[in-house]
Design a protein that fits this description.
The protein is of the alpha/beta class. It has a single domain, classed as Alpha/Beta hydrolase fold, catalytic domain (Rossmann fold), CATH 3.40.50. The chain is built from 13 helices and ten strands. β2 and β3 form a beta hairpin. α1 packs parallel to α2, α2 packs across α13 and α3 packs across α4. The longest helix has 22 residues. It starts with a strand and ends with a helix. The N terminus is likely disordered.
Length: 347
Amino acid sequence: MKDQINIRRRRLLGTTVAGISLLELGLSGLAQAQSNPTAVSVQSGARVASFDNIRQIDAGTLSIGYAEAGPQNGPVVILLHGWPYDIYSFAEVTPMLASAGYRVIVPYLRGYGSTRFLSADTPRNGQQAVVAVDIIALMDALKIDQAIFGGFDWGARTVDIIAALWPQRCKAMVSVSGYLIGSQQANKAPLPPKAELAWWYQFYFATERGEAGYAANRHDFNKLIWRLASPKWNFDDATYERSAESFNNPDHVAVVIHNYRWRLGLAKGEPQYDALEAHLASAPAISVPAITMEGDANGAPHPEPAAYAKKFTGKYQHRNIDGGIGHNLPQEAPKAFADAIVDVARL
């Protein structure tokens, strides 16, 4: 597989911490690697000034862009972002884990950042199974047999799916908002009015007007979602703009629109994923060690922890995170998220 370094540099605007590159953090982690990194407490305060070197590797139907930090021989952690976010949701989590001896992989999902489709003929599909297949393909391309996974939003759903369908690839997992595996059949059931209101953007995306509106206004649209989903997070413009670059991906709109239309049965998936979706529609239990998390100010639609606790049949904890923490928990409470990654492998 081709593995090339994209030397395009991203600059962090307005950060209070400067001069710490991902490369420096990776070398620091290599020098400090322990034989048992899970026994090392992550340290707050270390921050990524920029993911300076975004790597590219062909994996499945994609050329996947990803950041990497920490020692090559460390236990692997794969961190997965959601919509409308990107790898910078893990900008502070990454160096915490790298300095504790973990090899941290943070990929752009399909439709984000530097990730690209290898063929113009591949459908710009956003159904839940295909995103998980992408990550398994990435692991294969990087020759990673097993990893600890962490994610939120689309990333949490993908973590759940990998743990349910490929438990041998998932050593342990951390999922914000718990069990998010769904199905088209389940999504046919109407919700109470207040719950339906929370999904307003899904119904907007179901229309041609919504697709055109998102294409024209994705920058402001996604900034609005950030504010609604995390009403107490006082992020600045520089923080948002850093991630907003990822939404300029040429396939972003198509993948996002397909994802939400597929959920409602308004768009078809690809037939090669039908068997996976059939399994997921049975709401399979997750047996690997798991920690689920929820912020006390999550303004996005999310299930209550009691509703999904029994889906985790192995070693399991749930953690509520206080302090005005919203939907983008890894970026809003990075120390709590990094601690969960370290702790989950020791359950």
